[in-house]
User: What shape does this take?
Amino acid sequence: MFEKEYDVIVVGGGHAGAEAAAASANMGSRTLLVTMNLQTIGQMSCNPAMGGIAKGQIVREIDALGGYSGIVTDKSAIQFKMLNKSKGPAMWSPRAQNDRMRFAEEWRLALERTPNADFYQEMVSGLLVEKERVVGVRTSLGLDIRCKAVVLTNGTFLNGLIHIGEKQFGGGRAGEKAATGITEQLLDFGFESGRMKTGTPPRVDGRSLDYDRMIPQPGDSKPEKFSYLDTKKLVLQRKCYMTHTSKLVHDLLREGFDRSPMFNGRIKSIGPRYCPSIEDKIDRFADKDAHQIFVEPEGWHTVEVYVNGFSTSLPEDVQYKALKSVVGFENVKFFRPGYAIEYDYFPPTQLRHTLETKTIANLYFAGQINGTTGYEEAASQGLMAGINAHLKINEKDPFILQRDEAYIGVLIDDLITKGTEEPYRMFTSRAEYRTLLRQDNADLRLTPRSFELGLASKKRLERMEEKQKHSDNFVSFFKNTSFKPEEINPILEEVGSSPVKQSDKMFKVFSRPKVTMDHMLRLDAVSSFVEEHQLDAEVLEQAEVQVKYSGYIAKEKNNADKLLRLENISIPEGFDYSKLKSLSYEAKEKLEAIRPVTISQASRISGVSPADVSVLLVFLGR
Assistant: This one.
């Protein structure tokens, strides 16, 4: 069946696997995507949404790099919101509610339209390894498929164990069996593994809910989109709704705590800190009498509803009894109960920045196998693993994003350098250069680099260059054009800002906190410039950010440039840290385990002090 050798085999068809397969195939590698079920490629296993705080920035970055997640999200969106709009632009985060069935369908169709991409439905039970290099995979039917590189994106399927109350059974997600064999083989090769846990809430029948008793949560009045290409913006949107738990609901849930796998010791692994189960919230925040519940439709036409905020592994009878006491859920009908799932992961300090394993050459890990949680985090790792697998087998330089270049760079560097003992989720607070890493400029940051790789198209690059040119010209216009006091003072009075007595450059007055682009567009010179050059909303937003936050942006850029000097100081491969007597014992232990490739990476390792970095610099003659 498989006479030819593939360049890249991707194991798993979730968000990480789909992006990995698309990237390697689009760069020219003969790619095979092997998954246990071809009907669940791109499946939204948990909530039917993409984006959110920091996650939206990641989706924009994936799109700018030529990935598919942004396009698929736009084609299947049913609602769009820009979160944190009341804060500074570094915090603005796009989020889309999606049609679950359409999302998976669009992913499947996008991959089927991708040249060089083949598909095969079966479980991969092991790897073919020769001389510490992966050379293929072995399926559960005993087929050996040879290749030059393998990307493992197993999600929650590695020895997956589902918990509902006192019941437990093997599975990668509801209705699908677990994957076995790979963990055991990797342990034999010397890898370390651990267990993590995640959960999901009940799905219910929307026809049984009373939406009149809930608080409507509409999308933005002027919805945007994710992709920088010409995908369509939403015209119609579906509403979500919000309700709350209560003291009664909490008391009913507590009645089942003695049968909860979280509290009776059946679940021993650690779940996501920032997406706790409802029983965990009640236990940890015992002083709170109510928690928010978001009622999210699963699509345009289906009646299935996702109960966001009610993730649980309590017995199904307890789930049902408690949920019936939530306002609006008095007559609720279940489609399926919530559950928790435990699965194997491999601490990511065992990887290089390319996501290639240190133990076996040409073997890459991406997604939840690395200890992350979230579609967006998984998709970005898949994209980077697919890119680097292609580059490695073609003997080209690796593609690594730095912390000041992308949230993806922050994510991977955190994983590789610090590791994680709980499911890792991205936040804006994790990025020290978040003013540089905004959702509005991901294309300006990353499209040129992706085009050099041969991943981003010429059309995508030209769109980016056009946006950059118009934005720069508009900012120059503000720097070089003066206003008259009689024009600007009515606007300044309106926003409660001090009036001016003489003319000055528009850039200066536009930099004031309460003065917005909408205010500036009331000036004849500005509106004429916009009309003459046919500037769109993206350019207006980009120019406004560049004007109002120019000082912050310049400061962060300067800090990033200073740290880049340490990034350029390489540590020789195989360096013997034991001979440096002045290094602390902890530093030696951590440096030996992680094997950083630069001084900058070494400085970010937990347990390596500034004094230890100084010792390294002195020894390296710097």
Observations:
- The first helix runs from residue 15 to 26.
